């Protein structure tokens, strides 16, 4: 039977009364709470009366009244039973525990209040009778009235609540049960299925289950998270529309690019591949893998295949130049395409060069086309876009270059240069300044610009000069900036070369910029710190490089005709008349030479054995020993010690410096250099150091070979009396043996020995 809110409240009262009777204070607590309970009931009745008066218009339906009436009769019976039991228990408890007269009045009042329901009704005769059925319905809908849960008769001792708590604890215990216990129970349940089965039936069940699991494993689609990276990548590709065609095309490509294919087999593969990709080349050309397939077809395909691909893709060439992968097709087309196809590629670029040169991918194609495949007319057409819109107005078939325009239309010079300046200022970027087509435009601008325009442009481009030195035009631009720039411009350019000095020295054109820098920069301390110190760290590598040696030669003996071509000297002389340099050229060169002299001598001492036996470094060795501004004795002695090693003519295993093709030339040049040192008043000579280091009898062994004889002749031609005397004294004893030798060197040596 469903309990009403009133019965629940009574149960709480009963439980509270039992707890009070068990308390050590006894009757006093019970009496106090019973009095409070009466007051609470009176207040509750008044509240119920007010609620009834406010809800008179909302009378319940007959069906609801019947339900409430039935529930009320049941609740009244329960209430009577519980109150009678509560009254009898309270009476017995009070009579047994209270004997004091001070509490008689209160006890009598309390007992009278709880003795029977009839007496309690009499105490409430003055109050209006509430509609209990309606109040119970409202109580159930809204909850218990105010004060029902307060006081010492809280809601913790209800039997219903205790049962609910016990059920909840049992459920929580089941939830917290360890997983292994549940698994064990499940296994036992599974084993119970096999009870009563024979061993044959169990084997059949096992085989059937394994077969089902195998079928599930084969047909089960793996999850993406469980797949390897390569498998996920393959699955993504398979979702594309042209996956099968791309896979087959790549297989043909792998077979086509083999080097051992015959011409017939390669042509057959090209035909099959072209039939596969025909009409779909545009879809494949922009992908990183299938783009190579189309490139291979352009390379190995027949003329018909190339023409078909060209016709299919010709309208998209400009877009392809901007693609990371499709741009290589344009490059292959320039290399393997016909002349007409190549010309079409150039025509498609006209009018878009300024935009394409700023694009990372397209700029590479412009540079490749300009440097490798364009003729003079096509190069001029690519460059003329930078001259401005006015250039197109007076351009003719005869005047297509800037030089022609300046000569035929000098009045257009100002407008053309102003347009060029505006466009070039927007191109001063590290990624753009590396292209040769830009270098040409800068050089043409500097050749025709006024001093003011040139100064402004130098200030704009000075920090990017280091990225332009690998081409002829770019190196010329760098030299012009050094020649005509201010002291501040030169300082910025010099500092920008830091960490790139060794690379610049090895550049075919870039090393000329360093030579111009040595000529014009007055701040030699800055040059020594920023350029020379870094250069000397790589002096060994520079000595092995033809362009690097030019830089060392220029520091040792600037513009010497033995080491520099007249055309190079003529180019460098263009900067001699600049207005910025104030220091004397001789003073500037001497300060630089003094800084590098000692390190170069130390390098020669350390690597003398390698240098004297290398034709490429012989002249460098002579230049170091001839022009350094320090004592070269250590370097000369290092070379002499190599020559003092034991020598046996005709020994093929150990080639002595006397018989070495480059070694004997090194000795001859060093000895011949003493003649000029003698004229200059020097006091240190290689001949004297050599004779001091050589063991006794070494000159006699040298006379046994042709090259050794020529070295001895060089010693006699120095015209040093002491050296000539020592050589003749040692060779006079073998003069007769020399007469028996038939090679040319022995005959000349014999005549030198007989001369007085």
TrEMBL record:
Pfam families in the record: CPL, PUF
The protein's name: PUM-HD domain-containing protein
SMART domains membership: Pumilio (SM00025)
Region called Disordered, residue ranges: 1-176, 190-242
Cellular component terms (Gene Ontology): nucleolus
Gene Ontology molecular function: any one: mRNA binding
Domain PUM-HD span(s) in chain numbering: 248-620
Biased composition (Low complexity): 85-103
Lineage top rank: taxon: Eukaryota
PROSITE patterns given in the database record: PUM, PUM_HD
Biased composition (Basic and acidic residues): 133-143, 156-175, 199-229
Polar residues: bias regions: 37-47
Lineage of the organism: Eukaryota, Metazoa, Spiralia, Lophotrochozoa, Annelida
Keywords (A to Z) from UniProt: Repeat, RNA-binding
InterPro entries xrefs: ARM-like, ARM-type_fold, CPL_dom, PUM-HD, PUM3, Pumilio_RNA-bd_rpt
GO biological process: regulation of translation
Pumilio repeats: 312-347
Keyword set includes Repeat: yes
